[in-house]
Amino acid sequence: MESGSSEGEEVQQRVPLRERVEWSDVTPVPQNDGPNPVVPIQYTEEFSEVMDYFRAVYLTDERSPRALALTAEAVQFNSGNYTVWHFRRLLLESLKVDLNDELEFVERMAAGNSKNYQMWCDALLCSFFHTLHHRRWVAEKLGPEARNNELEFTKKILSVDAKHYHAWSHRQWALQTLGGWEDEPNYCTELLKEDIFNNSAWNQRYFVITRSPF
Description:
By secondary structure, this protein is an all-alpha fold. The protein has helices at 45-59, 65-77, 82-95, 99-112, 125-142, 147-160, 165-178, 184-194, 199-211. Helix 7 runs parallel beside helix 9 and helix 8 runs antiparallel to helix 9 (199-211). The N and C termini lie far apart (63 Å). The relative contact order is 0.07.
């Protein structure tokens, strides 16, 4: 075994789009800031390249697997870009992608975007809004079969921060849209046993009592 490397560990470097064979037929479209931009933003080379290629497929309305893969790269650079998320939803429908895989993609983004699901925090409100909107769109398309996934997703966040406002908001949306009311009182009781002063759990309990159809 060569020195300086650990077993099973590989260093993966991102291959620029211009060097990928599958993108050789595409002419990237640079961002047009006008002839005299006042304060041009200094984007990284990788970000600029991804967005230049994204503009190319977006302007031609290319509905292809490579375009879908490109949107994944684009939202990883900037998860607050509404146009990228919108086009990704069009691609998901056109390509008839398994939306359960899409939920996993969004969850990986949340877990990998800094610590403790930082994309849900107010400091990244724009990113949070568009990502959460996309997740809800996917869950609504899947219908009741997405219920357990969404409730477990919020549980993971609440296990880190039991008073996380956005997680509770999403959980309430999931209950009202997808169902799952019958188990919610027990979940609230579990949280209150851990912390009797958890106002969020008390609020959720009241929410279930007053909104549950049962």
